[in-house]
Amino acid sequence: MSAHVVPVRTYLLVFASLMVLTFATVAASRFDFGAGNTIVAVGIAVLKASLVILFFMHVKYSSRLIQLMLAAAFLWLALLISGALSDYVTRGRVNNMPEARSPTGAALEDR
Asked: What pLDDT was estimated at residue 50?
């Protein structure tokens, strides 16, 4: 199996793209997107991580098995994050539970 030789021009273009995305991160931090702040920041981070993984880690030129393993790792990461988020989003929510009352009938306050 021979190694794939990536032209220097490709590395320079990826580096320039990473620099542009870094400046985009800094520029985005100066604006208020409301609820979209996290989405914008994570979107830019995903683009930068994808460039690093594909080109600097040579996954783009690797075998299908390596690409499959990378996809499986991201699927596992997505499952872990969705599990944690489902717990976080439902915190404090109690479904079909009557309001807690003291023996005298007065409603109890949250502690």
From this structure: 93
- In angstroms, the CA 83 to CA 65 distance is 27
How far from 3 is each of 6, 64, 87, CA to CA, in Å?
9, 15, 45
**First CA to last CA distance, the chain:** 65
What are the residue ranges of helices labelled H in 1-111? 8-29, 37-51, 64-89
Measured CA to CA, the distance from residue 61 to residue 56 in angstroms comes to 10
pLDDT in tens, 49-102: 999 999 999 999 999 999 999 999 999 999 999 999 888 888 776 665 556 556
pTM of the model: 0.68
The pLDDT, as a whole number, for residue 51 is 95
Q: 100 CB contacts (<8 Å, ≥6 apart)?
A: 107, 108
